[in-house]
Amino acid sequence: MHSTSLTRRHLLQVGSTGLLGLSLPLLLQATDSTQKRKRAKSVIFLHQYGGPSQFETFDMKPDAPAQIRGTFKPIASKLPSVPVCELLPDVAKIMDQVTILRGMQHSMKNHNSAGYYSLTGFAPPTDDQRLRDSLELFPAFGSIVDKFGPAAKGIPSFVSYPHVIRDGSITPGQHASFLGKLHNPFFINQDPNSPDFRLPELSLPAHLSMERLESRTEVLKLIDSQTDLIEKSAVAHGIDESYQKAVAMLTSKDFKKAFDLSQETKATRDRYGRTTYGQGCLLARRLVEAGVRFVTVYLSPTIGGETGGWDTHGFNDKPMDPILRNYLLPITNQTLPTLLNDLKERGLLDETLVLWMGEFGRTPRISKLAGRDHWPQCYTILMAGGGIKRGHIHGGSDKIGAYPEHGLCRPEDVSATFYELLGIDPETEIRDKLGRPFPISKGKAIREVIA
């Protein structure tokens, strides 16, 4: 149950005599503070698997020695005294619209452990690359939103695509875990850049009555007869949990329309980039327009490689340059500013929080063999819209980018911030499989970044 409801009930039982010197009206006002701070309707989470380098993006150290500053040069941005990488000229133009957090920190050095932390806001029990997905671990951010701040009927609260991320084994934190399949994402394993991309839909025969549609058995028979739906729709797979919810989604005209990218102009699609990630970001904008509350767009299914994630170390004598220069920085430069500008032009940015975040950063020193290795001790993320300050830098790293000097934040603080902006109390309790109560976030909202 929502902790605010519990608190209000308790206060009403106490009565108007007051508690700890406060009057009942003032206490009730305090319990409603989260709802009053509600600023965002939706979140778009651009998950940057592999660990983006802060030194090659938003926390450059141009005055540091070469083995720290790297090979890329800084360029001026719209935010005075805040340069960005020379390969991000279009991102430089929208820096006055975003908040950069330069003091992110945790202690997980392995992709699966840190990835789980970045997807749930909960630190795993151990920092183990062999960390396996299980119902003992915590739910994805979007699953929490689905439970405590659901979208309108017929629209899923949580949509994710187009990859299941993994480093060897599947990275935990991508589904509802112990909250139950009812709160799993509407997961799409298709490429939004594919010419035949579309939403799998449930075709209802004209003779099917509402009485039969309300029968779980009849709906299962109908889905079984439509093999394309079974192959591509996670909702169809999870229909045992809530077939009414599944049918509502699979027959919703508004939701179906969001997946028709052909409705966009060629110019718009080209601006986002004719890539899986670019068209995925365009789809994210269309989904929040349709009323989806949490969209997770995975950049890559893997941590690295020529078209993979940000794990770019270990490439001979030039460990990072080829992939950063030819793929990761250009695709970021194209899609991120396009998404923010598109949201702003459509009047959606103020109510849509965009989160650009990976699982950790990279080491200050570049080694000839390992390049920039994993570094959770200090890294950078970006937030924009949805109640977040514009043109703001929160926190700062030391002169070589090794540790935060001020403004230290952790993934749970980020989750507390966007839950609060969505109107969900971060102290709301959930219970795990053993019945143990936990708040949905153990962090504190970062007040300094809230507009």
Give your account of this protein's structure.
It is a single chain. The protein has 451 residues and is an alpha/beta fold. The protein folds into three domains: 1-31; 41-195 and 251-449, Alkaline Phosphatase, subunit A, CATH 3.40.720.10; 202-248, no CATH class. The protein contains 17 helices and 18 strands. It has helices spanning 3-14, 24-31, 33-36, 66-69, 89-92, 111-120, 141-148, 210-213, 216-224, 227-232, 234-237, 243-250, 253-258, 266-272, 276-290, 321-345, 411-421; strands spanning 42-48, 74-75, 84-85, 98-104, 158-161, 166-167, 169-170, 186-187, 294-298, 352-358, 361-362, 374-375, 379-384, 392-394, 396-397, 404-406, 429-431, 437-439. The protein has an eight-stranded mixed beta sheet, sandwiched between helices. A two-stranded antiparallel sheet has the order 2-3. Strand 17 and strand 18 (437-439) form a beta hairpin. Helix 1 runs antiparallel to helix 2 and helix 15 (276-290) packs parallel to helix 16 (321-345). The chain is globular, with a radius of gyration of 22 Å.
